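Predict the 3D structure for this chain.
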Amino acid sequence: MRPTRDTRQLNWLLAWAVVFCDIGTSVYYVPGILYGHVRDATPFFVLLTTGGFVLLALKYIEISWRNPEGGGVVTITTKAFGPMWGCLGGMLIIVDYFLTTAISAVSGFQYIGSILPALDQHIVWAACGGVLLLAILNIIGIRESATVALVMASCALFVDLLVIGSSLSQLSAAQWKDLIRHVSADKELSSYDLLAGFGAAWLAFSGLESISQISPAMRFPLRRTTRNAMAAVVITMVLTAPILTALSVAVLSPEIKATQSERFISELGMVSGGFRTKLAVVLTASTLLLFAANTAIIGGYHVFLALANRGFLPKVIALRNATFNTPHLAIFVATSVPILVILMTQGRMVLLGDMYAFGLLGAFVFSSLSLDLIRWRLGRRDLGFWVGLFTTLMVMLAWSINLVEKELATLFGGTVTAIGMLAAVGVRRAWFMDILHQIPAVRHLQARAYRASENLAEEELKGLVTLADAVDLKALYPSSTLLALRGESPRLIQEGIARAKGKGEAALYCIYVEEWPGLFDGETPHMPNEEGLRTLRSALQEVENKNVEIIPIWTISYNAAEAIAKAARQLEVDAVLVGTTRRSTFYHMLRGHMVKRLMSRLPHNCHLMICN
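Done. Predicted structure below.
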């Protein structure tokens, strides 16, 4: 049985916000990193790479709608070249996510340090602490809200445009001339410098991959939603990244550029609009950067889950926490490596930026080349195919340059990728199983993982149905009562039985909603988790010999209140019974208060009853 879900909550505007919260953060640290490499030619190289970004963005529109199940580079590369190449693409994007988390966390606290100088001496530990806190929040299952992303992206875009407007309005004639000089090609640049700068500048558009990761959450028609979202991403990036880079290099003094390279944009805000503008930049930049770090953690552990489902990683990594239903082991790996990277590099942004380019460009190459091959197999030989092929060659050139130019990045990325591929092949061919099974803890976890992944067919749950099935059964088993179950709830079930009998009914709807937090959907189970099995089994046992038939409904949703309210509407019940919560205020703050959400979503003619 496959669950039916209504998780496509992202229209084009919300999808733009989620992507911009990732790709829009690069402007806060890329100008300073590039300035360390190419100095005054930084704006020219960012502008040069913007053209390549637009071409690649056009390809990611097609990658997204061709893969409505999501998965990004893993899915598209698997379809083009086969599972093992898809695994390699996954390892490259994992390296990208590791470095995204690290560089975003460090940069976020660097910007906070621009108004709290005392923090400057503790950036490394603050960044590590920030990643650790994000790990805890993800294990609890903090809900990534597209609405919050929209607010953050809109505020950041507004502040970016404010800084641009105030800076341009104050430029003198000499500064305008200097600005134009910076975005023009320097005749003294050698061919090697041009290639090196071109390869390095791609960092300005990191985060483009995220649109293919959120395609399972985007509304149909997917092609139109993706096209509109990407058009908004391209327009906002073209309006901000090249211009802010050019202004920061042209307007800031040599002393500031030499000592404050980690926070060019906040210093530009100070010069153009004073402390208030600087504060606005710091607030939007730091929150957006930490949001991007969180997005990278989510993307990273979802790649782990996808690879585990394909048999390339041990299933134990997909094991979910019994309390929060989140993959705590995958989250631990996705956050521990970035913390180690921050400690090893001591938060040096130039070094982190160099390391970042390996996985970023590698994932771009695999995604772009895979789409070319799929187009070729479909018989496409039009202008779009050849432009796409040119885009692939351009990205391959940039990656090749970085492989040679940035030896440390190649060493780190290559080592992580090699270890990941060795683990994948080893798991695929069962090289390590005999050794690992000698460890009792591993043996226990692996047994749990396999039990959780089996398509269980327990005798008591043969009547388990989806919401769509329950709607079809309404004529045979009419009921006006819906029980929303979480955990064993004998008192709640007894209340439901009493209500059904009082209304002369012989059936009772019971729904268990398995919450999967997040906008990044992946493979979902065919059967409930352990808590769901216990809950539904208990409900069936409670009605034995009570002359009441329970219709057990199981569904998966990103929002339990939304799923229960939808069930109430479709089943046309006039009462929903829920139990009292035992969860803390902190839990409700992170994942939302289900009862409050439910009250606002239920039909007006449906009553909510809370049973102690």
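The CA atoms of residues 215 and 430 lie 33 Å apart.
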